[in-house]
Every structure is written in structure tokens, then in C-alpha cells.
């Protein structure tokens, strides 16, 4: 059953805290310093009571020290060394499972007068807008069926001709292959010239594309962003729009 770990909250001197020696995560302290200077230090760090080692928020603590703060809000938890390491791993790892709604993110960034202290740069926003602007949804219409080919009428048999008259040179057995027909049969040219069958109008045809896990996550995010921007377009419409966009850039 879920429970709340034993903990207390208090202001602790920056010098009384220490980093965890097993912490494998590396952050950008300068970006955190910029945020602290813009917004002030908010939230807290989490430290193990027995050692005062930081198990969550180490780079916030480093940023606070670099920004000149003498104390930081600290949640002190009373846990053993193994639990402390597990909490440290979870705090670093769990955020990596999230992803952005790119369209909503771009809208949020554009709503601010500047991006100071957000961790985002103007270049990031430009790249994001470029990615979102590459694909334009075009609603396609169902394909219409092609008319069936018109067969030439067969020549009527001449009156008075005896079908059994072997002396009539025009009387050629239908099942007797000609030299030209026999050649086509052997080299397969007659069959290879025929186009593949086309689905009837409105018919659904499945296209299966194998993707890696990373590609699947990226495609899911892109489709969600496009639908957020352009409405609830079908996956088929999104794919067709992407292919058209790619083809246009190649021209």
C-alpha cells in the first residue's frame, strides 16, 4: 500500500548539505542559476537525514550555491542507504518517460514576452515552429474507380463460310497459338505489362510500416502535435500530408 515517507521540512544551510557520491546524473547548473535569478528559488531539495546527502535536487542545490544563497528549503527523509539510492534513481529517471505536446508547448512559449529563466531559447522555439510548419493537412477525397476497358467487337462470320472447310485460308483455329503469342507466353511480357489491380473506390487498404521504439515515440508525438494544431485528422491524412510535404521539398 502506498504511504508517505517519514520526513520534515526546514531551511538548511547550503554548506550543511552534500552531494550523493553515487549520483550518475549530470545537469546544467548555469541554466538553473538563470532560473533562480529570474524567479527566485522555489521548491526544495530532498536529503537523507542520517548523512544529509541530497537524493533529489542536487543541481538545484548547486545552482543555489552558485547564485549566492546561504540556505535552501529542504525536505529531510529518514530512510536507509538503499532506499536513498532508489529514490535518487527514480527522481532522475521518471521525468524521462514524459513527452511534450509540441503544438501546446509552442503556443505556451509564444505567449511569453521572453524566454528568460525558462530553460528554453529563441532558437529552440524557432526549431519547434519549423518542425510544426513542415506538414499541412490536406483532406483527400476517395479515389474513383477507373472505367472498365471497352472490348472491340468481334468481326461477324461471313455468310456461307463453312467452318469445317479446311481449304479456307482464313479459317484459323482459335486455340492454335501464333508465333507472336507463343513468344509472349514464354517471356512473360504480356503479363508483366498489365498494371497491378487498384482497390475499388472507398476500399480500405492496410499499410504496415515497421518502426523502432524511438521512432514510434517520435511519430506519436508528431501526430499528436499535428492533430492539436489542425484538428482531429485521421492518421492516413497525416501520413499523406507528410509525404506530399517531403515530395514538394525534393522538387
What's the arrangement of secondary structure elements?
Layout: E1 7-13, H1 29-39, E2 45-48, E3 53-56, H2 58-66, E4 71-77, H3 81-93, H4 102-110, H5 122-133, H6 179-187, H7 189-192, H8 213-230, H9 235-250
Helix pairs in contact: 1-2, 4-5
Question: Can you describe what's shown?
Answer:
- With 251 residues, the protein is of the alpha+beta class.
- The protein has helices spanning 29-39, 58-66, 81-93, 102-110, 122-133, 179-187, 189-192, 213-230, 235-250; strands spanning 7-13, 45-48, 53-56, 71-77.
- The chain has a four-stranded mixed β-sheet.
- The longest helix is centred in the last third of the chain and has 18 residues, at 213-230.
- It is elongated, with a radius of gyration of 36 Å.
What portion of residues is helical?
40-55%
Mean pLDDT: 78
Strand content: 5-15%
Q: Counting H and I runs of at least 4 residues, what is the number of helices?
A: 9
Give a short account of the largest sheet.
4 strands, mixed
Order of helices and strands: EHEEHEHHHHHHH
